[in-house]
Amino acid sequence: MSKKLFIETLGCAMNVRDSEHMIAQLNQKEPYELTDKIEDADLIIINTCSVREKPVAKLFSEIGVFNKQKKPTAKIGVAGCTASHLGEEIIKRAPSVDFVLGARNVSKITEVVDKKHAVEIDIDYDESTYAFGEYRTNPFKAMVNISIGCDKSCTFCIVPATRGDEISIPSRLIVGEITKAVLGGAKEVMLLGQNVNHYGRRFSDVNEEACDFTGLLQKISKIEGLERIRFTSPHPLHMDDAFLEEFASNPKICKQIHVPLQSGSTALLKAMKRGYSKEWFLNRCEKIRTLCPEATISTDIIVGFPGESDEDFEDTMDVLEKVRFDQVFSFKYSPRPHTEAATFENQVDEKIASQRLTRLQDRHMQMLSEMMDEQLGKEHWVYFDELKPNGRVAGRSDDGKLVFVKGSEELLGKIKKVRITHTSRAALDGELV
Ligand code: SF4
Questions:
Q1: Are residues 80 and 220 in the same domain?
Q2: Is residue 153 a part of any domain in this protein?
Q3: How many Cα atoms are found within 13 Å in the side-chain-facing hemisphere of 207?
């Protein structure tokens, strides 16, 4: 009889891949079946995110609810970034939690699951060459880690404190994992890392074959049966010409790129320790648009970072106007433990930060409507990877737009030409050509 596993994954794509790894490891020990019913579960895992305060606050109320709903014999485990930085404190505040597993200790899931109140949160633990078992939530969507951790020290960001220093995964292991995923039905891969274009700076083994990100992209492109490569997240600082030329000229690399801005003000970028200026950022975006006019650019923006003046915010709005991003993930600054900016004195008034966020999001929504409206009648090659209700199938165009068509599972794992018949800000509808 297989046990039932309820796993909730919060946060980023790296957390999604960590959850897949945990499921793979658990199933290597004994069979587990996924359930979305707490009351049926034998094991409940909350894979947490700490990038902002809200998800952390929500965690403890959720533990309380799950504890009431669960079977008496069921176990609750907390994994991910909040586990890394709160550790023992989670068990002190919620003794119903059976184990705590940090974001860099995923491979230890089978050790902690049977150890009452186990806490494994070593952020120096090196899993970069660990051979995880095979499990993918969706065989047509292959996400592959290329590095763990981050070597930057952006003053607003908790990730280095929860995921540790950056170590690159050897290219031979990455090529091996992608080859397996292609054999499993995936034609597209999403490469994951905190700073993918910083790849190759450090491997566990100093004698590991040297390879930078451009070299890795070239190696992966040779994998037979793989048709599309996506990656997240690159860092603007490391967007050298060689990388951007490879991005533009390599036919397998999807023409969609995430360039996280954070702020348009050079003074604020300095206080954030981002390492680049407004001019550099604009220069890189212009280079992308020159080399690859059809490419779409998405970004991350924080408003209300300590010390942000009206002029600083106008700089951010100026970049928004100049680059016309296809997608913007924007948030109000949230002070995080273990970060420098949380101690900065000149915190911005909450109301002002909200007003700035609203203005930025409203303006971007206007732009997005204009950009998506222009898609009507256009044709895209779409990779279909998800069945949807009402006889629809979802996929992504080469430049990353979400596209729906009428169809069945026969379309899954295929790349087909689609003509756009209806547009909205979030997605496009079309018909097969
Ligand atoms: S690059 Fe900066 S924002 Fe990104 S994960 Fe590292 S510290 Fe955080």
A1: no
A2: yes
A3: 0
Overall pTM surpassing 0.70 (yes/no):
yes
240 C-alpha to ligand 1 centroid (Å): 18
Residue 156 and residue 137 in contact, taking contact as beta carbons nearer than 8 Å: no
Residues 6 or more apart whose CB falls under 8 angstroms from that of 358 comprise none
Cα of 159 vs centre of ligand 1, distance in Å, is: 6
Q: What is the mean pLDDT of residues 98-119?
A: 97
Residue 116: count of CB within 10 angstroms of its CB:
9
Indicate the SS3 state at residue 279: helix
Which is it for the CA torsion 407, 223, 172, 198, positive or negative? negative
Instruction: List the beta strands (DSSP E) in 272-423.
Output: 296-303, 327-332, 379-388, 392-397, 402-406, 415-423
Residue closest to 174 by CA, chosen among 115, 140, 222 = 222
Q: How far is the CA of 288 from the centre of ligand 1 (A)?
A: 22
352 φ, ψ (degrees, to nearest 5):
-65, -45
Q: Could you tell me the CATH number of the domain that includes residue 328?
A: 3.80.30.20
CA triple 86-144-239, angle to 5 deg? 90
Ligand 1 pocket test: which of 165, 166, 195 has the largest number of ligand atoms within 8 Å of its C-beta? Answer: 195
Count of domains for the chain: 3
Which atom of ligand 1 is nearest the CA belonging to 262? 3
Residues 337 and 417 occupy one common structural domain:
no
pLDDT at residue 145 is higher than 90 = yes
Q: Which atom of ligand 1 is nearest to the CA of 150?
A: 6
CATH number at residue 47: 3.40.50.12160
CA dist., res. 116 & res. 304, Å (int):
42
What is residue 168's predicted lDDT score, i.e. its pLDDT? 98
Same domain, 262 and 359: yes
By residue range, what is the domain housing residue 314? 141-373
Task: Tell how far the Cα of 155 is from the centroid of ligand 1, in angstroms.
Answer: 9
Taking the centre of ligand 1 as the mean of its atom positions, its distance from the CA of residue 275, in whole angstroms, is 11
Is 134 a member of any domain? no
Q: Which residues line ligand 1 (CB under 6 A)?
A: 150, 152, 154, 157, 159-160, 194-195, 235
Residue 1: per-residue pLDDT: 75
Tokens 């030329």 sit on residue? 245
